[in-house]
Design goal:
About 30% of the residues lie in helices and about 25% in strands. The chain contains 7 helices and 10 strands.
């Protein structure tokens, strides 16, 4: 599903953000990518979203060769990704319902499908009754749940979450992570980038740890088993 082969990333400024990293994610896996600030986590997300191209190495995702992806294929590729950002990036002038509806409209879903799917998504993220609320009328955890519902509205093959619990208290963070896990259990490959060790430890899933642009471990389960870990 995701293949990084010897990927290096040197920004135009000369900063080497990734040093020849390789990893492979199978369909249906749940993977945390973790590491201190500056370790290269966001660079991996930018590469996965094809906002950047690697300086050297190959990236294959969902059957696409990202280095050689054509302009024609780029929107098709991105359509199969769902992305949740720390700051949610909801449309503030649209209601909860309309935020999700809009994400489906832009990919050409029929009104009929939208009317069937949006209530199911709202039910899944426990926001029934909040359909008509605007984002600024919601608590942080509720906004995160709208962002999650929107990210999965078009049934992506891969869900990428960039620090999804960054602005949330521990209890709300747990709810969001449990929801991400639920999405994974329904068959979606999930990649969560985070520096929040508590949520990583809670789920006991695969953890790829970065340090200064290198993968320093790739393990199942707790990150605390390695005493050299610095957070
Ligand atoms: P993280 O997400 O783990 O904090 P990043 O991937 O953002 O790490 O950054 C890795 C390194 O690349 C850092 O040294 C950072 O300063 C640098 N970097 C990130 N984005 C850019 C950019 N657009 N231009 C130049 N350097 C960048």
């Amino acid at each position: 599903m995701i293949d990084f082969e010897n990927v290096s990333m040197i920004y135009r400024s000369g900063t080497e953000a990734l040093h020849g990293i390789s990893f492979h994610v199978d369909p249906g896996e749940f993977v945390f990518i973790t590491g201190k600030s500056g370790s290269g986590k966001s660079t991996i997300i930018k590469l996965l979203m094809r906002e950047e191209k690697p300086t050297t190495g190959d990236i294959f995702v969902n059957g696409y060769d990202l280095y050689n992806l054509s302009r024609y294929d780029l929107p098709h590729y991105r359509r199969r990704l769902g992305v949740v950002f720390q700051d949610c990036r909801l449309l503030m002038n649209k209601t909860v319902y309309q935020n999700i509806e809009f994400a489906m409209e832009v990919v050409g879903e029929s009104n009929r499908t939208i009317k069937q799917v949006v209530p199911k998504l709202l039910h899944m993220v426990d926001l029934v009754g909040k359909e008509k609320a605007f984002p600024d009328e919601l608590a942080g955890g509720e906004q995160a749940r709208v962002a999650l519902a929107r990210a999965i509205a078009n049934n992506p093959d891969i869900l990428i979450a960039d620090e999804p619990t960054g602005n949330l208290d521990p209890r709300t963070s747990t709810e969001i992570i449990d929801l991400l896990y639920k999405v994974n259990q329904l068959g979606t490959t999930v990649v969560v980038v985070t520096h929040d060790t508590k949520i990583v430890d809670r789920l006991q899933q695969r953890v790829i740890r970065l340090k200064a642009g290198n993968i320093i471990s790739d393990t199942e389960g707790s990150i605390y088993e390695d005493e050299t870990c610095e957070y």
